[in-house]
Write a structure and sequence with these properties.
The structure is a homotetramer.
Chain A (H helix, E strand, L loop, with lengths): L2 H11 L4 E2 L22 H15 L4 E5 L8 H10 L3 E6 L18 H21 L3 E4 L4 E2 L7 H18 L5 E5 L9 E2 L4 H11 L3 E6 L9 H11 L2 E6 L16 H13 L8 E4 L8 H21 L2 H9 L3 H13 L3 H10 L6 H8 L1 H8 L11
Parallel strand pairs in A: 1-2, 2-3, 3-4, 4-6, 6-8, 8-9, 9-10
Antiparallel strand pairs in A: 5-7
Chain lengths: 386, 386, 386, 386
């Protein structure tokens, strides 16, 4: 098989999970702009996600967020998804929107609040049992706003204790993905602020605990692909929350702010053996001002393009230049792949998969946007609050 | 008059404006935690602000935010304030919370939206006429999230045109304070992102247009006191929006994150002749998790302490060491003032002003917190949305 | 003329100035790694620069740095350059390497040091007269390391005074380009830290004073293309010092760290009418570990590629999408140009200019690297210190 | 014993190690400004360090840097130090100033260079045997400047292998302190860029491997005290390299840029049981423009003041407020200690230790500065290069 053929084969196996909440409304603390046609129910979110998969062919699963996607019968929801050609993916917990969580959840000074938070996480594992989801994704908004507000170290002890209880509840084939974030909503300390903290906790928990890298959760100047390479080397990269940012956790479409960075990340994934189902490739974005479904399709395509470029790197030439200490030559090999226009290749891949080569045009022609704008009238549009 | 006496005299003339919205609920995009006793009306906000002034003696004015503080009769509102010992201060416009403003306000590509935005600003000047406010504070959320989304330069043209119309409407003794901000809620470009842009617009508008420095609106590493010194040198420092931050626009209590920076800022104010009524010293903060009124009292006290230290700098010794090129000596003179515990001095100042030396304790003893928690039940608590 | 033909025509007129000092050794505070074949004299630097122009066709001028390129006869040096097919470009002053400049140069508290610094700048204008250079590029290392070390505002007064004297000395057709930089080598204040400060000084000086944007001199998160658009709108963009950075002023090859940013900058240049000789496009880089001449060739090619992409933006489609408020559509138009592989186009451009389509391969085949390594033995290699 | 007495007792046991290289010349890549009286030999550095200890009483050890402090007889050097009242401290390796290290040292692609680097580290352990030093401090300048330049992951493998060999050579009671740094001198990747990477390596090496926190080596916005608390919780905090910064690794006097941060760090040290000899408190600074010995004395005093404030925190009141979820109350307890002027307390401590209460004045009166300026004439002043 030629290198190009191998790249195409790999691209056909790609899977990018889309998040149910990205189909709903989102915004900043200043304003949430509502959009026409936004889903009112978890089922309608799945309907939209199914369109993304229909036109891209590589978005087969949908992450749920509890309680935003709470239903009475998760098995029925899973069946609903499968009837539409997609499957339920990771279960995302939420321990930041209840009034009790003003000072934290699993790290809260009050044991009663910690109990409540852990119970919610255990409920999420119950849901995983029902949906068949493999991954429990944990992001904690826990932290403090003011120096002295709470005991930084005691909060780590509480975190470790809560995580251990949830870890113990994980079933065969289930995993816990621990996400880190520099800041927001907490502004002085965050209880899992960096990959090192997440990694240290995962190490103590055991092999089912893995670190998830959200590409928007780092300090300025952080080399994310280095972290990716390191976590793969340590066997602790559980997955990605993809998005992009210029400043903070902007949650823009992945690849929109720094496509070269996304390529470098995907190169380290490929180089480190991470282009496997063991690493979950998920989107986690906010489409505050742009149309949501096309934005998600575009994001999936951006991941595909970065992946294609990463797969096209002439690794033998690269290794040769690196061994020779040829700084410019090695850089040129990498840049040659990056500078390649891979869109024709991806059009071929799509055609070979029986898809329209232009997912966005196909989506537009489908009339789905007009249909949901007309039909989804009344009710409560989904958003972060519900 | 000794230096200490001069410092005390100056401290007694200090005026810190508190923002009506800081008495209401606020939060992050993740959650707004409601608090007991939060005002439901502009009048109740003024009641709370009056307590802050009662106990600190240096918070005589209250900034309004339109439409959050919209009332039928602004003259009556002004009278309401004065009856409680405070006055209405700057009028803050809001051109970011209407659905029309999804892609901007005064910089929007659609002239109809720009018209609406400018009309709102003109209405704010009408309100200033009614309230007797001197300052129109303009912060624009305008910007773009994605490269290419709009024409960066055309947006500047629109901005200039809109500002000029509003400037022309300003009456005798009225001013326009133009605020800049690096990012948020826009994530790719912001139409007034830095002091240079605000300054360039003010220059073209005329002497009534001044720059306002929000201490949380800069890129990491920006030397804010340098900007303060520069704007004072240029005669264009209209005022401050005080708050503090560790990461982005965290809107924590001023002086909480970096008290040394606040001192350095106040030193440049004093050194540059900016400790006058021509510079408006305003708070602009969010008390998301802490009790609001005590947080505002504490913030006012933090400004007082930084000011006291700045006033205590031995400027003659400093100038001597600077002239001599004595790096360590000059730094030591500044640090000597900073390291001084000025709380006893401020207690004296308060006692001489007929106040309790400990404003927070006096507030606690007043029973106000319990009273408003008991009385302000029902209705719609004030927040950023209303 | 088709758009493609127009783009090609524009690309043939492009001019990127290379800096004499980039041909010499450079490094960090930790180590300067010497390389074989590095020039010992200004003439040898010109020899190398002539190779870059020979193979790229778009690097016709060479910036000098005084005193590093001090010679007895500048007219002879200019002739030397022209004999080799290049011309002398901007004159760069140096007021940071004399022991007298420990606490600054033009902003120093001691008038004698200021006099010395201004005299040096005046000497640079004398050199411009002799070389026929149009631009005096001024970068000041001036600043302070410790709060209180010197009077921030007085330093601005001194700066203004010194600049005014030099401005007065400029002849017909000569310009002063004022560069700003956030930090380094000063660590607390820098006397020209941002574009706003440079702009304010240029405004007061007059139309011959223009701002120069070094792409590595900003705080993290700064939107450089916004500054470019703003300065063009104000008629104050004098030129660029191109390089790239991940963290601080890394001085890597332009386009190496964030090629998408370089494209966005060049798009604003094109859109704002800045692709003219009035804007000087200069490199200012350090090739600490990579071979210098190929690195400079590669950098010139990176600028070409970004320019080609910027020229290929379908501006009519872009304007339409922007007017329509089509966020995704407008972004897609821009990204379509960015994602295009313009290397074939540039190979055509080079062939039409009578050049080898692959400048790096042509350089390698030329044997120049081996020749200078063999011949330039002994003597003192050029570097920042000489 | 009262709390104050306990604080005083603790302050009397404090030990801050000063670095031999801070007594020599240093600078930026732009210029090294030489100073009068700078040592020419390791012995003269020890003479200066002895003055710092003489006047502060809490700087009993001096870190060496190999090869800058290479001597023929380290036992004799240790004796020389003890004769002057100080002892030799940590041995700092240098694998960045030899031409071979252009592309790295212990991570270099060429095994011969790696061998050389490891041999140097082993030599450093030999020196520790001779000097009786406990700690080998390892900072690696290793990294890459351009994407693709080398294989990020292979470099980690090489690093692990090299460290393991050196670890195996450590004797009884000897430790390896692994330092991390975000960037500089490498600008794309750094092989030990963050505490997580250092921690992961130390974990695999064993208990004698500990992480050292240089306070200037983090990305903007990083919460250093959180890292300190975490490393203490993990039992992996080996020590500090103290300095301060506004932007990057500015290496200013510790406490000069953000004294509140230093206090918060020292509070976490105290709270986490880190105020013990197991944690090495070292300075690592550059006094580029200020007089070196007084700057070091001042730095030691800054550490003392931050420590004193940290010791004065009313931990019982703090814990109570934290447990009660009293955000403002808990913050106030911390700030109360920070706002205390501890200089009188430290004067008392010094007097009780038989020292002059004002170390800087005592140093000035000693005539040492004049003496060394007069005597140390000729020879080669010490600096980073020798």
């Amino acid at each position: 098989m030629t290198e190009l053929a191998a790249a195409k084969a790999a691209l056909k196996t790609q899977a990018v999970e889309t998040p149910s909440w990205a189909y709903g409304n989102s915004g900043t603390r200043f304003k949430v702009f509502a959009q026409a046609g936004v889903p009112r129910t978890p089922q309608e979110k799945l309907d939209d996600a199914a369109r993304v998969h229909e036109f891209t062919g590589v978005a087969p699963t949908v992450a749920l967020h509890i309680p935003w996607d709470r239903v009475d019968d998760y098995a029925a929801l899973a069946e609903y998804a499968e009837d539409r050609g997609v499957r339920l993916g990771a279960i995302n917990s939420n321990t930041f929107q209840d009034d009790d969580y003003r000072l934290g959840s699993i790290c809260h000074p009050d044991p009663a609040v910690r109990r409540k938070a852990v119970d919610h996480l255990l409920e999420c594992v119950d849901i995983m049992d029902a949906t068949g989801s493999r991954d429990l994704k944990l992001w904690f908004a826990d932290g403090t706003n003011y120096p002295g507000q709470d005991d930084v170290r005691a909060r780590q002890d509480r975190l470790a204790e809560g995580l251990a209880e949830v870890y113990g509840r994980l079933g065969e084939g289930q995993r816990m993905l621990l996400e880190y974030k520099l800041f927001e909503p907490a502004f002085y300390t965050t209880d899992v602020p960096d990959w090192g903290t997440a990694y240290a906790h995962c190490l103590k928990l055991g092999p089912k605990a893995q670190v998830v890298v959200d590409t928007g959760h780092h300090a300025p100047g952080t080399n994310i692909e280095f972290i990716v390479a390191t976590l793969l080397r340590e066997g602790r990269l559980g997955g990605f929350d993809f998005n992009s940012r210029f400043y903070a956790d902007d949650d823009l479409m992945v690849g929109a702010a720094d496509p070269f960075q996304l390529f470098r990340i995907m190169y380290e994934v490929v180089r480190g053996g991470g282009f496997t189902p063991e690493v979950a490739f998920m989107l986690d974005q906010c489409h505050n001002i742009e149309a949501k479904i096309p934005a998600i399709i575009r994001s999936v395509m951006n991941v595909q393009e970065a992946t294609a470029k990463a797969l096209l790197v002439d690794r033998s030439a690269l290794a040769g230049a690196q061994r020779a200490g040829d700084v410019l030559g090695a850089n040129a090999v990498l840049m040659d792949a990056y500078n390649t226009d891979v869109r024709p290749l991806l059009r071929e891949v799509r055609e070979e998969m029986g898809l329209d080569p232009d997912p966005l045009a196909a989506y537009r022609r489908s009339g789905w946007a007009e249909k949901i704008a007309a039909e989804r009238v009344g009710g409560q549009q989904a958003g972060w609050g519900a």
